[in-house]
Specification:
single chain; alpha/beta; six-stranded parallel sheet; 12 helices; 14% strand; binds NADP nicotinamide-adenine-dinucleotide phosphate
Length: 307
């Protein structure tokens, strides 16, 4: 926790609203998520950690509760297990109070894998987060949502006419992309578009954020995204160049703390390529601000999710 402690002053000076709240957050077992839940605990929020790895979740709970004396519950959650999402929806129905849902979970460049007809990157980074957030907002329209997106979300849609023609072509066009960089960027674009439609048309309180670049478990060799040589050198070199997760998580914290961000804005780090600095509010790339496309993406994702 030492690396987070050096930013507690910055947190004290900049966070106005996220204190003594009830927050559901996933991805806490990852690099940015762990730093984020450390700040949220420091700020005396009660947390529900939605995690795949319960042992790791319990370890984080014990560490943070001992240090900050906030209340933390650990709940099993996996974007590849729809039943676990339905349990979270039931939980929210029965909770007396919940203020925020923060979506941190995500996968990066991973080997191509089709699960139930859809490539894994889109399930974890787009279809199931869209499903969960939409359902949570049906239960509680005042729930504030903060989502960790990526600067890559501004990527252009490919083969747009075919992609957006119907649900079958939507999935097959996405599945046909064999380039893992493109799949990741598209999954982030599609989730952002989906949420921007919800934000604009249903007036929901949703904030998109970008953490910058931080070397986290995204570059873990267990993901088997690159060859062995990559894992020997690249993460080490990146650690020297980029910031660590404790600084990256400040942009996510700022995104949660913002009372409301205008439709065309998001929060990410200052500095060259938005990679290193302290948080700032930015304009979204115009590729994400096409209301007609965003509406089509919203409807197509809902259709796929119903099936
Ligand atoms: N690091 C960067 O430079 C960077 C840049 C831009 C955007 N981001 C975004 O930041 C977010 C956090 O990433 P990170 O850098 O902290 O990576 P990380 O250390 O790999 O953390 C990813 C988190 O997502 C969880 N996760 C993975 N698959 C999941 C699934 N099927 N269901 C539920 N949770 C799942 C992981 O759980 P396990 O611990 O169980 O694996 C982990 O808690 C991601 O959305 C990522 O796209 C990161």
């Amino acid at each position: 926790m030492k690396k987070e402690e050096k930013y507690f002053n910055c947190v004290d000076q900049n966070v106005l609203n996220v204190k003594n709240k009830v927050i559901l957050v996933n991805g806490a077992t990852g690099g940015i998520g762990y730093s984020l839940v450390t700040y949220l605990s420091y700020l005396q929020n009660d947390l529900y950690l939605l995690v795949r790895n319960l042992k790791e979740g319990d370890k984080i709970k014990n560490e943070l509760e001992n240090k900050f004396h906030n209340k933390i519950e650990v709940i099993y959650f996996d974007y590849l297990d729809r039943n676990s999402l339905l349990n979270i929806i039931d939980l929210v129905k029965n909770l007396a109070k919940v203020d925020y849902f923060v979506n941190v979970s995500g996968i990066y460049h991973q080997p191509y894998e089709i699960i139930n007809g859809i490539e894994k990157t889109y399930i974890v980074n787009f279809f199931n987060p869209a499903f969960l957030i939409n359902e949570l907002l049906k239960i509680n329209k005042n729930l504030k949502i903060a989502v960790v997106s990526s600067i890559t979300s501004s990527t252009k849609l490919i083969r747009k006419t075919l992609l957006l023609s119907n649900a079958k072509n939507f999935v097959s066009t996405l599945n046909n992309i064999k380039n893992k960089h493109k799949r990741y960027a598209l999954s982030k674009h599609l989730l952002s578009s989906y949420l921007l439609y919800l934000k604009e048309n249903q007036n929901r309180n949703i904030t998109l954020t970008h953490p910058g670049i931080a070397v986290t478990k995204l570059f873990d060799k267990k993901n088997k995204a690159y060859n062995k040589l990559f894992y020997i050198f690249t993460p080490q070199i990146m650690k020297l160049i980029f910031m660590d997760s404790s600084k990256a998580a400040l942009s996510i914290l700022k995104g949660i703390d913002c009372d409301y961000t205008p439709l065309n804005k998001w929060i990410g780090p200052r500095g060259l390529f938005h990679s290193w600095g302290y948080p700032k509010i930015y304009s979204l790339n115009k590729n994400l601000l096409n209301p007609i496309e965003n509406k089509q993406i919203f409807n197509l994702a809902n259709k796929v999710n119903e099936q």
